[in-house]
């Protein structure tokens, strides 16, 4: 087996931008093994030089030229990273010139700005949304007047992680309501949700997959029997259809995709944090 | 006041990669007003054409040429987006040729792969980490044997959002322990944390900022008095110092930055979801 190609996400900030684009790029080269590492907060030439030495050594150990995906803004830092002998992919460089030309002004290179220091309002909005998601998780509180949206579905259909993701990344007040046996035995919307119809979005899931998830949580219980999962999912889907609640299957979707599709369906447009 | 320049993050998948890099790019052009919009799941030429028409209209309405930041992989889609007349910045194009040359193979364009379909193990790891964070939030459960790390600090120092972020994006089992009055009156580590010293990381915060956050939560309480905040923060910081717990101030940091710095300090290297 050949060695994995060393890939480093290097940044003057958190490295999230570099890792996001780098990861997307690597997924397009399936069949190649990569060993990835994130090196954040490289904000001086001295640090960049020492990182370059470390990357050079990793390349020598692997017997393969390393790749650096860099989101460092300062040209001096990028030059210092070049001393590693790695292939350096600069996340911003290709776009600066066309943007400067289009806007008719020079960019202001500000180190580590994208995910760095934040103003109080932004922080506050995220934290408040997060508190909202946690206090309105799993039907704990049913006062949905302030909710931006309410996810509805059977237990373990993916509601909680989606709500938390929406809160963290979009500052959205997302509540979630688990359909209980009582709710499912009727094919109508639970009375307590009727006032919030336009905020509702249904999550469903393949019963076999649901069974697998529940089995991990409460092994060999009635809750995790395939028959229970099949019945609950069928009842929930019938209700979504009768009540015309938009619905998405989470079976093969990532949390990011579920979140994106919910926002698109409900027509909510918020900038991402 | 001039109109805001329309910027569209267009993607065949969730649009997270396009928005992440686009947002980072825009932060370098301070002083320009942008109106941003995310258009995900543009995965056919027909959809791309209709998106192009919408973007052309937005540019005409604003009287400014729009900017598209595209993470569409398929060249036909990108060409269709070009019909909008916008400046199209292609998130992957500049890096494909150098990567292909370096690796000696052609990329496999797979639509919407980065944040799309996921395997069961990946989903499971994230969900389990998330459950862990929620059940070990705020000192609710003190069985830390399985924790990857434990954040320690006074109430409202930023522990919960950081734990949830670490779970969601790194699959890390992050617990958090709030320092109570009893804990703070001693300057030593609480007994229940002593077995987990190497997993501990302290969060601190400027007392004025803490007061502002607590005031929102429980207005005009003893809890939110500046004097209370000052005392608690001073006691916590003294304890971190005596016990040599690594510590970070969250006052001006984003959740992403806190998370990155915690991982760096504890030497935890995980690929990001």
Automatic annotation (TrEMBL), chains A, B:
<keyword id="KW-0547">Nucleotide-binding</keyword>
<dbReference type="InterPro" id="IPR005177">
    <property type="entry name" value="Kinase-pyrophosphorylase"/>
</dbReference>
<dbReference type="GO" id="GO:0004674">
    <property type="term" value="F:protein serine/threonine kinase activity"/>
</dbReference>
<protein>
    <recommendedName>
        <fullName>Putative phosphoenolpyruvate synthase regulatory protein</fullName>
        <ecNumber>2.7.11.33</ecNumber>
        <ecNumber>2.7.4.28</ecNumber>
    </recommendedName>
</protein>
<dbReference type="GO" id="GO:0043531">
    <property type="term" value="F:ADP binding"/>
</dbReference>
<comment type="function">
    <text>Bifunctional serine/threonine kinase and phosphorylase involved in the regulation of the phosphoenolpyruvate synthase (PEPS) by catalyzing its phosphorylation/dephosphorylation.</text>
</comment>
<keyword id="KW-0418">Kinase</keyword>
<keyword id="KW-0808">Transferase</keyword>
<comment type="similarity">
    <text>Belongs to the pyruvate, phosphate/water dikinase regulatory protein family. PSRP subfamily.</text>
</comment>
<dbReference type="GO" id="GO:0005524">
    <property type="term" value="F:ATP binding"/>
</dbReference>
<dbReference type="Pfam" id="PF03618">
    <property type="entry name" value="Kinase-PPPase"/>
</dbReference>
<keyword id="KW-0723">Serine/threonine-protein kinase</keyword>
<dbReference type="InterPro" id="IPR026530">
    <property type="entry name" value="PSRP"/>
</dbReference>
<dbReference type="GO" id="GO:0016776">
    <property type="term" value="F:phosphotransferase activity, phosphate group as acceptor"/>
</dbReference>
<feature type="binding site">
    <location>
        <begin position="153"/>
        <end position="160"/>
    </location>
    <ligand>
        <name>ADP</name>
    </ligand>
</feature>
């Amino acid at each position: 087996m050949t060695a994995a190609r060393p890939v480093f996400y290097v940044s003057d900030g958190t490295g999230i931008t570099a890792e996001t684009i780098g990861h997307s790029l690597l997924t397009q080269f399936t069949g190649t093994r990569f060993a990835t590492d994130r090196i954040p907060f490289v904000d001086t030439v001295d640090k960049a030089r020492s990182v370059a030495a470390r990357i050079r050594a990793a390349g020598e150990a692997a017997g393969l030229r390393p790749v650096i995906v860099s989101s460092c803004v300062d040209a001096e830092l990028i030059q210092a990273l070049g001393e590693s002998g790695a292939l350096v992919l600069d996340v911003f460089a290709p776009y600066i010139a066309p943007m400067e030309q289009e806007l008719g002004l020079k960019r202001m290179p500000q180190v580590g700005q994208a995910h760095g220091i934040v103003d109080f309002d932004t922080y506050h909005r995220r934290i408040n949304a997060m508190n909202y998601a946690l206090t309105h998780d799993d039907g704990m509180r049913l006062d949905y007047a302030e909710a931006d949206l309410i996810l509805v579905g059977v237990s373990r259909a993916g509601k909680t992680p989606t709500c938390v993701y929406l809160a963290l990344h979009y500052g959205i007040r997302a509540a979630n309501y688990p359909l209980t046996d009582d709710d499912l035995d009727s094919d109508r919307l639970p009375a307590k949700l009727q006032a919030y119809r336009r905020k509702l979005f249904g999550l469903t899931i393949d019963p076999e997959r649901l069974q697998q998830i529940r089995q991990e949580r409460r092994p060999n219980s009635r809750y995790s029997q395939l028959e229970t999962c099949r019945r609950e999912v069928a009842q929930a889907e019938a209700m979504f259809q009768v009540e015309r609640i938009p619905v998405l299957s989470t079976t093969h979707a990532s949390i990011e995709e579920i979140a994106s599709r919910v926002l698109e369906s409900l027509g909510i447009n918020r900038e991402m944090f």
